[in-house]
Amino acid sequence: MRILHTSDWHLGRTFHGASLLDEQAQALDRIVGLTSEADVELVVIAGDLYDRAFPPAEAVTLFGEAIARLRSTGATVVAISGNHDSSIRVGVYDSLMTATGVTIRGDVRRVADPVMVEPTDGGPPVAVYPVPYLDPTLAGPVLAAAPDPESEPESEPEPDATSRRRLRHDEVTRLATDRIRADLAARRGARSVVVAHTFVEGGVTCESERELTVGNIESVGVDAFSGFDYVALGHLHGSQERDDARVAYSGTPLPYSFSEEGQTKSVRIVEIASDATLTVEVVPLVVGRSLRTIEGTIDDLLGRAELVDAEPARVRVFLTDTHLPMQAMARLRARFPYAAELRHRPGGVEPGSGGATERDTADPAASPLVLTMQFWVEQHGAEAGAAEAELLTTALDAVARSGNQ
Prior knowledge:
405 residues; alpha/beta; Purple Acid Phosphatase, chain A, domain 2; 6-stranded mixed β-sheet; 10 helices; 28% helix; elongated
């Protein structure tokens, strides 16, 4: 059985204020094409379908059209809500749509309610468990409470003592996967796929991800997903894998920050044999504008011939001119029309990053003038000249005199 694993579409996102919707549409075109060409039977989208809980109308339309096109290839489609999504809004028609071959799961109470896919390879069925993003505050009390077998599927379970404290991401995830393993044990011989949106320990992060906790300190252990044939993850924007590719992130279809420069954006096509053996192919999407970072003086950057390949890219510029040139961004965009970010690094040192002297190692008994001169170096990457030093001395003297009055 062939599965296409994608995630983190972030439909409606902008890049430094520029709309990405056209490029996102190109990426989805490519994903639909791969689904058809590779005879994919199951498409899983591991969360962050949209970039925010209230996405723009154009993003909602694009998502609906993409899901319809994926389903028209004959593939079953299973998606989950991520930490950027509104779980209620994206999953509102889940029960109704599942009957048509499309599942968009946002209800954490249904983590052990699989989508059963009958493969064409003649092997055992595949149980797909969609696990929406598990916010510990919201999902913890639900999953910590023992499910009541006599209750209706949509009823809230009664919380126990464990559910009254805030659980960690790892604990909440293990509560969910314990329920899934219990359900899977009753489906003898079924192959299993878990779709989840979380931060697994050891993952490589990017600046464009919204941290689930400060510093991503509440990571989830890989062993929380033991016993499943394939775990399709979302949240991290770079393609990466754990446990011999059994637990993997597909990454985003497009780069969403300059921290993703150099990443190859892709999807994963996973084949699960009848005996649950995995074959994984990482397929580059090769859509959208590339990212480039360039550095130099403005005259150098505008005249350097070898930068011609950066002209169609989204560009981050580090200018090393001693003084920031007038209308620098406008001048740069005359050559690099998609220049998105400009930073001033006089002398090759970024302001505020620390120069010859760091304030945090400065002598606390140093005079105000010495500390001010150190701060000047940090901000400008060079010592203050005689004229600047005189102005700073005059200003500090004036402040001292006013304080003594």
